[in-house]
Amino acid sequence: MNSCLEAEHSPIFVNGPIIVGAGPSGLSVAACLSNRGVPSVILERTDCLASLWQKRTYDRLKLHLPKHFCELPLMKFPKNFPRYPSKQQFISYIESYAARFNIEPVFNQTVEKAEFDVVSGLWKVKTQDGVYTSKWLVVATGENAEPVVPDIPGLKNFTGPVVHTSAYKSGSEFANQKVLVVGCGNSGMEVCLDLCRYNALPHMVVRNPVHVLPRDFFGLSSFGIAMTLLKWFPLKLVDNLLLLLANSYLGNTDRLGLRRPKTGPIELKNVTGKTPVLDVGAISLIQSGQIRVTQAVKELTKKGAKFVDGQEMEFESIILATGYKSNVPDWLKEYSFFTKEGMPKTPFPNGWKGENGLYTVGFTKRGLLGTALDAVKIAEDITDQWMKSNGPLSASNICSSCIIHFHFNKS
Ligand SMILES: Cc1cc2nc3c(=O)[nH]c(=O)nc-3n(C[C@H](O)[C@H](O)[C@H](O)COP(=O)(O)OP(=O)(O)OC[C@H]3O[C@@H](n4cnc5c(N)ncnc54)[C@H](O)[C@@H]3O)c2cc1C
Ligand SMILES: NC(=O)C1=CN([C@@H]2O[C@H](COP(=O)(O)OP(=O)(O)OC[C@H]3O[C@@H](n4cnc5c(N)ncnc54)[C@H](OP(=O)(O)O)[C@@H]3O)[C@@H](O)[C@H]2O)C=CC1
Ligand SMILES: O=C(O)C(=O)Cc1c[nH]c2ccccc12
Predict the structure, then answer these.
(1) Which of 88, 117, 129, 283 could make a disulfide contact with 7, Cβ separation 3.0–4.6 Å?
(2) Alpha carbon distance 297, 292 (integer Å)
(3) Does residue 319 sit in the same domain as residue 330?
């Protein structure tokens, strides 16, 4: 049944959870619910699945954790996929995943406001087309919902192109240019690597300490080594071992202008969400001088930048590899469960369940691995409640339990 939703003035009651976001997290929850016979509705602001991956990442991107750490619940990657699937392979997996579980999000529905109505005991979720209501609200809008565009002094003066990595596709657009790359996270490093492939001369701004690990050590993934060791050893010991291996493999990155934070790489990721760089070649290009490292920017000028160490250089373009942020505070009107930065106040592994039927998925600071863990817990919790009020319905007559015709993820 694919009846189209018609914009109605009266609220649209959903007899199942409303999931905001059709990224891997929202799809995982819908799939786990569908697998238990519980319908749901996904509201997605764009016109596609996994829009971060489809619309806001660069061409050469790959998963940088081995694929078995990035699988969504109930469906493995195809066996013929490489250890690190490409962006295109990941997207095809996502599309197969949605098809497998009959997930049909309602696209082009930006959730502008969601709040809990204590009188009715329902969540009221407003989009540009109407108001949806449900007993359950699943926040799946992601840790990386919006680009971070820092207010660098003089940014408006610069006369060349300024592009955030969410809009960067390939170095082909910057061939042979001298480019300032602001940010030395995984995006900054990978964009510099990409720019070198097009004979550009990237200068990467490094303003604070950063951890860099080789993505692989002698054929083994750093992340895989860490996860294996963590089964038997404490986090600080594992981090110290990772750093020993990294320094033996990459050399002392301090000498390259990349000081390391005092907290270990995995601990820093788990606590702050700051991901260590998993190097796939940028370090050797820094060592060879093809990628230059600069101090923090003091201000931008019409033709370039002044740095805190007094240096001044001209650039043809600027790439802002300055990260992303959550947008939950922009639309979710609840003030006890989320921080003002839009992350759950309750740390992992307990940040998936709030009050009054509120759930979050994909805010664990653990990437797709965390997404999968959250989705299973959320689906189990909602299913228990849903069955109590709907009874064990078979898939064939489930639609009779829905009060309105709409796209829903059939079980
Ligand atoms: C460049 C990059 C590479 C990454 N690589 C990896 C990796 O290799 N491994 C890994 O584990 N993680 C990686 N991540 C982390 C990434 O967050 C996860 O891979 C994954 O995308 C998280 O899925 P999600 O559904 O939680 O969030 P997203 O993928 O961000 O999806 C959120 C969805 O919600 C929608 N949305 C947002 N706001 C609204 C709204 N108000 N109304 C309606 N819809 C809305 C968005 O359009 C989007 O489709 C990477 C992140 C980035 C930015
Ligand atoms: N699968 C893959 O291969 C990839 C995965 N990713 C993932 O995507 C997510 C986002 O990564 P990324 O886009 O790199 O963002 P990050 O948040 O990891 O890094 C942002 C970088 O920008 C810097 N920055 C921010 N503002 C300024 C400023 N005003 N001046 C100078 N530097 C500034 C930060 O420095 P500071 O530390 O000082 O704040 C930091 O180095 C991460 O989880 C990452 O793991 C990204 C790329 C590739
Ligand atoms: O790349 C991301 O955004 C991720 O969240 C993947 C990830 C989760 N935990 C990590 C620890 C070290 C490096 C990457 C990750």
Answers:
(1) 129
(2) 14
(3) no
pLDDT in tens, 26-68: 999 999 999 999 999 999 999 999 999 999 999 999 999 999 9
Show Cβ contacts of residue 182 under 8 Å, excluding neighbours closer than 6 positions.
Answer: 150, 152, 188, 205, 297, 318, 319, 320, 321, 322
Nearest to 366 by CA among 348, 379, 380: 348
Q: How high is the pLDDT of residue 391?
A: 75
To test the ligand 3 pocket, which listed residue (53, 65, 189, 324) has its Cβ within 8 A of the most ligand atoms?
65
**C-alpha to C-alpha distances, 272 to 119, 254, 284, nearest whole angstrom:** 37, 22, 27
- Please answer whether residues 301 and 157 qualify as being in contact, where contact means their C-beta atoms are separated by less than 8 angstroms: yes
pLDDT tens for residues 371-386?
Answer: 999 999 999 999 999 9
Put the strands of the sheet holding 304-307 in their side by side order: 297-300, 304-307, 312-314
Atom of ligand 3 nearest to the CA of 369: 8
Say whether both 234 and 252 belong to one domain.
yes
Q: Tell me the best of 269, 368, 371 to mutate to test the pocket of ligand 3, counting ligand atoms within 8 Å of each CB and taking the most.
A: 269
Which residues, listed in sequence order, are joined to residue 312 by a DSSP beta bridge? 306
CATH number of the domain where residue 70 is located: 3.50.50.60
Domain count, the chain: 2
Q: Residues 282, 168: one domain?
A: yes
Residue where one domain finishes, among candidates 304, 323, 342: 323
Distance 136 CA to ligand 1 centre (A): 21
Tokens of residue 72, six digits: 């969504």
pLDDT at 10: 84
Does residue 60 lie in a domain region? Answer: yes
Residue 346 DSSP code: S
Q: What sign results for the dihedral spanned by CA atoms 274, 278, 280, 283?
A: positive
Closest Cα to residue 282, out of 190, 371, 175? 190
For tokens 């109590």, name the residue. Answer: 388
Cα 24 to ligand 1 centre (Å)? 7
